[in-house]
Amino acid sequence: MVDTVDPDFLPFDVTADPQPERRETAHMLNFWRQGLHREYPVSGLLSPKFSAKTGINGKVFNAFIENNPDYDVWFINPFPHYYYLSYNIWEHGELWYPGLCARASRVFAAAGIAVDLTNFPRSTKNTLLFSNIWAGTAKFWDQFMTFVSTLSMHAEKIIDVFDEIPYENSKSVYFPFIFERLFTTFLVMHPGIRARYANFQFAHILDMTSQTDTLLIREWGAMIDKWDIAGIYNDDQRAIFRGIQKLSILGVHANNPEVLRVVLGL
Questions:
Q1: What is the pLDDT of residue 169?
Q2: Is the separation of the CB atoms in 183 and 129 below 8 Å?
Q3: Which residues contact 105 (CB under 8 A, 6 or more apart)?
Q4: What is the DSSP string of 98-152?
Q5: Which of 76, 93, 75 is nearest to 177 (CA)?
Q6: Distances (CA, A) of 59 to 63, 65, 73
Q7: Closest CA to 252 of 220, 214, 201
Q8: What is the pLDDT along the chain (266 residues), one digit of tens a residue?
Q9: Which of 7, 84, 145, 162 could disulfide-pair with 32, CB 3.0 to 4.6 Å?
Q10: Is the dihedral of CA 158, 23, 25, 245 positive or negative?
Q11: Which of 117, 131, 130, 142 is nearest to 193 (CA)?
């Protein structure tokens, strides 16, 4: 893929140790352990699909960072519509990958980190991130990757973290879907971190979604915004979030009965 790297990014060679089942988490840990994050004022390890996922190029992302100084970390959530389709990042994961939260909870417990995923708070626009599309200072790297490294060490000892699950038209394991949720979890646990998120406007979010999700967000988005302003979520609202997300999953996998059987119990 080296010939397709964005000209405003640098390539990072992972061919010697690809670890596909762990995806970007393994590469981020290697980058950090080699101390490469100390060679730049700000650095990030981004997917080769960065532009396809975010709709922008490297020049725009670099400018976003330069034009918003004095933060610890900058991020772009390539799936901003999930903010309206799920209550938080863990509930989203549990509905897409049943059994994820039980496995993640065992990892947190083994690491001695007290996190109650059943009562995890609402994922807000300034914490919600998928695909680890972020860049941070050396200080942030050290803080966050110490957290990730500790959890990764314990996850390796929990066999069912590597159980197979259906993913798109192939198979994956639980590991990467647990670990892509650590960024949001870390920000919630450390509210003093100065994080700058890309604020997608409502109209743009609708342009980035499927026809089913567009319909769901148009119907419920304004009401969800009111809930967020109030900042209080009761059991009925949480149930509505779960119902919206199940409809979204149904729209994505309408022609994939195997996934629907696993995810929705159909």
A1: 65
A2: yes
A3: 115, 117
A4: TTHHHHHHHHHHHTT----GGGPPPPPTTT--STT-EEE-HHHHHHHHHHHHHHH
A5: 93
A6: 6, 10, 17
A7: 214
A8: 788 889 999 999 998 888 888 989 999 999 999 999 999 999 999 988 899 888 889 999 999 999 999 999 999 999 999 999 999 999 999 999 999 999 999 999 999 999 999 999 999 999 999 999 999 999 999 999 999 999 999 999 999 999 998 776 667 899 999 999 999 999 999 999 999 999 988 888 888 888 999 999 999 999 999 999 999 899 999 999 999 999 998 887 777 776 667 666 66
A9: 145
A10: negative
A11: 142
Identify residue 237 by its one-letter amino acid code: Q
The pLDDT assigned to 259 comes to: 65
Which residue in this structure is represented by tokens 């640098």?
10
